[in-house]
Design brief:
The complex is a heterodimer of chains A (220) and B (179).
Chain A: H1 14-27, H2 31-38, H3 42-52, H4 56-72, H5 83-102, H6 139-150, H7 154-165, H8 170-177, H9 181-203
Helix pairs in contact in A: 1-2, 3-4, 3-5, 3-7, 4-5, 7-8, 7-9, 8-9
Chain B: H1 5-16, H2 22-33, H3 36-52, H4 64-71, H5 82-97, E1 128-132, E2 137-139, E3 153-157, H6 158-163, E4 167-168, H7 174-177
Parallel strand pairs in B: 2-4
Antiparallel strand pairs in B: 1-2, 1-3
Helix pairs in contact in B: 1-2, 1-3
Classes of the chains: A mainly alpha (220), B alpha+beta (179).
C-alpha cells in the first residue's frame, strides 16, 4: 500500500476547516462534495503527473487514477494535514509506479548522483525585460513555455515543476522525490537557468521570436 | 565581501528564494548593479519563476473533470468493522441467493477465474478497480478483502479486469451485484 502520510500542522487554517467539512460530507456519501474538494487542485494534480511523466496521455491517466485513489482512500486522510499536499503525494506515488512499469528510469534516473559536477554557466545574455502576465493569455506563449519545460531532462523538470509550478517548498520537493535538499537546490538552479537560456531570446520583446529548440538543437 | 559573476550565477536560485545570508545577499546586489550580464541573468531567471508560477501555464486536458467523475466507484469502502462483516455476509447471502440468471453474452472474455462466482453485469467499464496478480476477484481500491498473499496489486479499469476473467468482489462491489 501507499504511504499517505503528510506533515502535521498544529493549527488548522480556515481553508482546512472548509476542506474538512467537504471531506466529512464525501465520506457520508456526498459525491458533489468531493468534486468541490478536488476541483481547485485538478491542475496541480495534472502538473505533478506531467512533471514525472513526459507523455501527456500518461500524465492524464495517472492524474485521473490519483483522484480516484484519493476518493477511495479518503478515510485514511489525517485531518491535521493539508489535503492538497496529500493529493499531490498520491499523484507522485502513482506516477512513480507508472515510471517503474515503463522502465523509464533506466534511461533517465532520478537518483543520478552526478549533480554539481560542474557548474552551469548561462549561455545567453539577452536582456529580457519583464514579460507581463497578460502575455499568458496567448496560446503560443503557453505552448512555448510548455515546450521549453518539456525539453529539460526529467530530473530537472520534476524538481522545477514541483517547486515553481506546484509551489512546494524545497523540503517538500525533496521529500516528494526522495532526494536530498542539496540535490533539489542544485537541480532547481540548473532548471531555472536552462529555461532562462531558452526563453530569454524568444521573449525578450514580450513576443516569441526564434525558438532555439525548434531547430532540433538545444541551446546548451 | 565581494563576489564574481560565476558566484552570482550559482546563488541566483537561493537569492530568488530568499535563502541567503544578509551579507551574501548584499554582495550579490552590489555586483549585479554594476554588471550587465548578471542583471540580464537575474531578471531573466526572475521572469522564469514568475511566468511558470502562473496557473495558466498548464492546460488541463479536455473533459478532465467529467472523466474522473465517471471513474469514481459508487461509494467509499468502509474501514471494515465487525458490523461491516455482518453486512458483507448478509450481502453475500442475498447475492448468492439470487444467482439464477441468464448467461452473459460477452464475446472474447477469458474464462472466469473463480467457479463460484458470476460475471459482473452492471459495473461501469471505466471505473478503476484493484486486482491482485494471483487473485480471482476485482475490488474497489482500498477494499480489505483483496488477496493479501501478493503485493502485486494493480489499479485497472473494470472492463479490463472483466476481460481478464476477474470476478467482482461480493463485499466491496455488492451494490453492483444487487438486482
Amino acid at each position: 500500500m501507499l504511504s499517505l502520510s503528510t506533515a502535521p500542522s498544529p493549527i488548522p487554517p480556515p481553508q482546512n476547516q472548509r476542506e474538512a467539512a467537504l471531506i466529512r460530507r464525501t465520506l457520508q456519501g456526498d459525491r458533489d462534495a468531493f468534486t468541490e474538494l478536488v476541483k481547485p487542485y485538478e491542475r496541480r494534480v495534472y502538473a505533478a503527473a506531467l512533471a514525472l511523466l513526459r507523455n501527456e496521455a500518461d500524465a492524464e491517466d495517472i492524474a485521473q487514477e490519483a483522484i480516484v485513489k484519493a476518493f477511495t482512500h479518503l478515510h485514511q486522510f489525517r485531518a491535521e494535514a493539508k489535503f492538497s499536499t496529500w493529493l499531490i503525494q498520491i499523484t507522485i506515488n502513482q506516477a512513480r509506479m507508472r515510471q517503474r512499469k515503463n522502465h523509464a528510469n533506466l534511461y533517465d534516473s532520478l537518483d543520478d548522483t552526478h549533480d554539481g559536477e560542474e557548474d552551469y554557466v548561462p549561455r545567453e545574455f539577452a536582456d529580457w525585460r519583464e514579460t507581463p502576465p497578460e502575455t499568458l493569455e496567448r496560446k503560443e506563449i503557453r505552448a512555448l513555455l510548455a515546450q521549453a519545460l518539456a525539453s529539460l531532462g526529467e530530473k530537472y523538470r520534476s524538481v522545477f515543476v514541483l517547486r515553481d509550478i506546484e509551489q512546494l517548498s524545497i523540503e517538500e520537493t525533496a521529500k516528494a522525490l526522495a532526494i536530498s535538499v542539496a540535490n533539489v537546490k542544485t537541480r532547481l538552479l540548473r532548471a531555472r537557468l536552462m529555461l532562462r537560456d531558452i526563453l530569454a531570446p524568444a521573449l525578450r520583446d514580450g513576443w516569441p521570436g526564434h525558438v532555439p529548440f525548434q531547430k532540433g538543437e538545444k541551446p546548451w | 565581501m565581494v563576489v564574481n559573476c560565476a558566484e552570482v550565477w550559482q546563488q541566483i536560485s537561493n537569492y530568488l528564494d530568499g535563502d541567503l545570508s544578509a551579507e551574501l545577499r548584499q554582495a550579490i546586489e552590489n555586483h549585479v548593479r554594476g554588471c550587465k550580464h548578471c542583471t540580464a541573468v537575474l531578471e531573466g531567471t526572475r521572469n522564469v519563476v514568475r511566468l511558470y508560477g502562473d496557473d495558466r501555464v498548464i492546460e488541463l486536458p479536455a473533459n478532465f473533470t467529467q472523466k474522473w467523475q465517471q471513474r469514481l466507484p459508487l461509494f467509499i469502502p468502509s474501514k471494515g468493522t465487525a458490523y461491516g462483516w455482518l453486512v458483507a455476509v448478509a450481502a453475500l447471502a442475498i447475492v448468492s441467493g439470487t444467482f439464477a440468471l441468464g448467461k452473459a453474452t460477452t464475446s472474447t472474455v477469458q474464462a472466469l477465474r473463480s467457479q463460484h462466482s458470476e460475471q459482473a453485469q452492471k459495473i461501469p467499464a471505466a471505473m478503476m478497480v484493484e486486482v491482485a496478480a494471483d487473485g480471482k476477484t476485482f475490488h474497489v481500491p482500498g477494499c480489505k478483502f483483496i488477496h493479501q498473499s501478493s503485493d502485486k496489486v494493480r489499479l485497472i479499469a473494470a472492463a479490463d479486469a472483466m476481460r481478464a476473467g476477474y470476478v467482482p468482489c461480493v463485499r466491496c462491489l455488492r451494490e453492483y451485484l444487487r438486482r
